[in-house]
Amino acid sequence: MKLSSLLHHHGLTSNFAHDPEISSITADSRNVGTGCIFVALKGTKQDGRHFIPLAVAQGAAAIVQAEEAGQHYPSQQTENGHTALIITLPDPARFLARSAALLAGPQPEHIAAITGTNGKSSTADFLRQLHQLRHEKAASLGTLGLISDVSLPPLPSLTTPDAVTLANTLAALKAHGVNHVALEASSHGLQQHRLDGVAITAAAFSNLTRDHLDYHHTLEAYRHAKLHLFEKLLPEGGLAVLNSDMDGESYQALCEIATRRKLNLRTVGATGKTIRIVEAIPTPQGMDLTLQLHGRTLPSLHFPLPGRFQAENALLAAALCWDDDKEAEAIINLLPQLKGVPGRCEPVAHLPNGACAYVDYAHTPDALEHVLLSLRPHASGRLIVVFGAGGDRDKGKRPLMGQIAAHLADEVIVTDDNPRSEDPATIRAEILATAPQAKEIGDRKKAIQTALAGLKEGDVLLIAGKGHETGQIIKGETHPFDDRTITATLAKELA
Ligand SMILES: CC(=O)N[C@H]1[C@@H](OP(=O)(O)OP(=O)(O)OC[C@H]2O[C@@H](n3ccc(=O)[nH]c3=O)[C@H](O)[C@@H]2O)O[C@H](CO)[C@@H](O)[C@@H]1O[C@H](C)C(=O)N[C@@H](C)C(=O)N[C@H](CCC(=O)O)C(=O)O
Ligand SMILES: Nc1ncnc2c1ncn2[C@@H]1O[C@H](COP(=O)(O)OP(=O)(O)OP(=O)(O)O)[C@@H](O)[C@H]1O
Ligand SMILES: N[C@H](CCC[C@H](N)C(=O)O)C(=O)O
Ligand SMILES: [Mg+2]
């Protein structure tokens, strides 16, 4: 594509003397080659503008950077005999995402983006499963990676990949005939405009509680980043699905956007107008669910997974799934066929004495509270929790999680969970400050072993925080560690 044509798609006109052919775009100088546009972004650690000379020397056709008031920029820059055009724009990250999408090619016809503090991965997985149960080629993309009917290279470990990877992945899915995609929209991804080139057709919001304040600083800024999905990315008239039981402030803000932008609003939950949970009665494996669809009570169904929050996520997915209201009941009737999401309230061991252990990805105060409350009815004996908190992440979560564990579990073991660059003992101490009765066992395997060894008939053990993760990150190194396989192996040894 010619540069002038690319600029034209953004409503810009080219005043340059020549019009290079553009083959790619990137925000990483290490990926720059001939015919590439290098977008110099300010990051959290570095300023991409430092890498402009390098990008030019490597053959960049053009450089895009943020315009700053009062600054005058040259129209081109030469390094090592190669010249690149210089373009200054108010919003280079948005330009990057939208150009990457144009260069990558067509995207799947149905793309649902899911945001919220907790439940994004689960909802995306359930939505992919529902599409597949309807014999549609489908994919989900997020913390659990890319899961689809077609085989594509694995993605980097972010929840929402960078804009270029995202555009290329969506185009590859479309080329393989996948037309239904469920995408996780993280607050970092939304804030950094990673999704601005995605042709989103539906959006969902699960809930908003405390997380990532290390990055967003205030809950208001965190909410604002998430609202961007509904305010800017979802086109007018698009489908918006909300869990009606989220905090009132977020719900009000979303309803206001939905009205103003004429979104097709569906709400699910205890007070949902589209799907209302009338009753959820826990059973050994899941729950008996009575639902109302648009006010009409449906025959009860068995939802096969434990935890009311899992049913809420599944309803969010169901309401994202149908186009025509006539299909709604058929979609809801697929819920009994859903499979558990890896590392989400996943039963991993049953001891001969009848005690059992679950692994869950709860790494926020709200998630820990929900999963402990959800598992309580499954424990005729005691409820025991093993958990920690991630290093280099929102420190304010730690005392809150300690308090919740102390309040809702009968026994608490505080251990390590990805201390990263921080001192693990300090992280544990910050949790223990509000859980003084808790045991402290830094070594996660020993903590799990101790908890398993102490289980009696009817007890339930929750190992929280790492879910599907397969490593323990300590000082920049990832050591193999999988709560699920370790717990299952240790439980077998005990049997
Ligand atoms: C805090 C954060 O979101 N960081 C992301 C951000 O990096 P950054 O702002 O730190 O970038 P930087 O290192 O300062 O560099 C600035 C610019 O210079 C460029 N650069 C840098 C070096 C070089 O040699 N040449 C060059 O051009 C970089 O490509 C970048 O454009 O942009 C990078 C490129 O897209 C991401 O890889 C990186 O994710 C880091 C690895 C990360 O850990 N992110 C986490 C916090 C994250 O995004 N998490 C969310 C949500 C998780 C959840 O909800 O639970 C996710 O979506 O995964
Ligand atoms: N609807 C919900 N309400 C409250 N807690 C939930 C909900 N759904 C999931 N959780 C909790 O959050 C954990 C993570 O769930 P999930 O991976 O689906 O969320 P996520 O939003 O994708 O998280 P991340 O931000 O890490 O990607 C679960 O293991 C569970 O403890
Ligand atoms: N996406 C989340 C995952 C946290 C998982 C937990 N195990 C931790 O390391 O804190 C984050 O990066 O904050
Ligand atoms: Mg996720």
UniProtKB/TrEMBL annotation:
Keywords attached to this entry: ATP-binding, Cell cycle, Cell division, Cell shape, Cell wall biogenesis/degradation, Cytoplasm, Ligase, Magnesium, Nucleotide-binding, Peptidoglycan synthesis
Enzyme class: ligase
Ranges where the Mur ligase N-terminal catalytic domain occurs: 21-100
Modification N6-carboxylysine, positions: K226
Record PTM text: Carboxylation is probably crucial for Mg(2+) binding and, consequently, for the gamma-phosphate positioning of ATP.
Documented EC number(s): 6.3.2.13
Swiss-Prot/TrEMBL GO biological process terms: cell division; cell wall organization; peptidoglycan biosynthetic process; regulation of cell shape
Domain Mur ligase central, first and last residues per copy: 114-320
SUPFAM superfamilies assigned to the protein according to its UniProt record, in alphabetical order: MurD-like peptide ligases, catalytic domain (SSF53623), MurD-like peptide ligases, peptide-binding domain (SSF53244), MurE/MurF N-terminal domain (SSF63418)
Residue stretches spanning the membrane: none
Compartments where found: Cytoplasm
One Pfam match: Mur_ligase_M
GO MF annotation terms: ATP binding; magnesium ion binding; UDP-N-acetylmuramoylalanyl-D-glutamate-2,6-diaminopimelate ligase activity
Residues that, per the record, bind UDP-N-acetyl-alpha-D-muramoyl-L-alanyl-D-glutamate: S29, T159, T160, S186, Q192, R194
Catalysis: reaction(s): UDP-N-acetyl-alpha-D-muramoyl-L-alanyl-D-glutamate + meso-2,6-diaminopimelate + ATP = UDP-N-acetyl-alpha-D-muramoyl-L-alanyl-gamma-D-glutamyl-meso-2,6-diaminopimelate + ADP + phosphate + H(+)
Residues that hold meso-2,6-diaminopimelate according to the record: R393, D417, N418, P419, R420, G465, E469
Annotated metabolic or biological route of this protein: Cell wall biogenesis; peptidoglycan biosynthesis
InterPro entries attached to this UniProt entry: Mur-like_cat_sf (IPR036565), Mur_ligase_C (IPR004101), Mur_ligase_C_dom_sf (IPR036615), Mur_ligase_cen (IPR013221), Mur_ligase_N (IPR000713), MurE/MurF_N (IPR035911), UDP-N-AcMur-Glu-dNH2Pim_ligase (IPR005761)
Motif residue range(s): Meso-diaminopimelate recognition motif: 417-420
CC per GO annotation: cytoplasm
Residue stretches making up the Mur ligase C-terminal domain: 343-467
Binding site for ATP: G116, T117, N118, G119, K120, S121, S122
PANTHER family linked: MUR LIGASE FAMILY MEMBER, UDP-N-ACETYLMURAMOYL-L-ALANYL-D-GLUTAMATE--2,6-DIAMINOPIMELATE LIGASE MURE HOMOLOG, CHLOROPLASTIC
Purpose of the protein: Catalyzes the addition of meso-diaminopimelic acid to the nucleotide precursor UDP-N-acetylmuramoyl-L-alanyl-D-glutamate (UMAG) in the biosynthesis of bacterial cell-wall peptidoglycan.
Family: Belongs to the MurCDEF family. MurE subfamily.
Name this protein carries in UniProt: UDP-N-acetylmuramoyl-L-alanyl-D-glutamate--2,6-diaminopimelate ligase
Organism (species): Bombella intestini
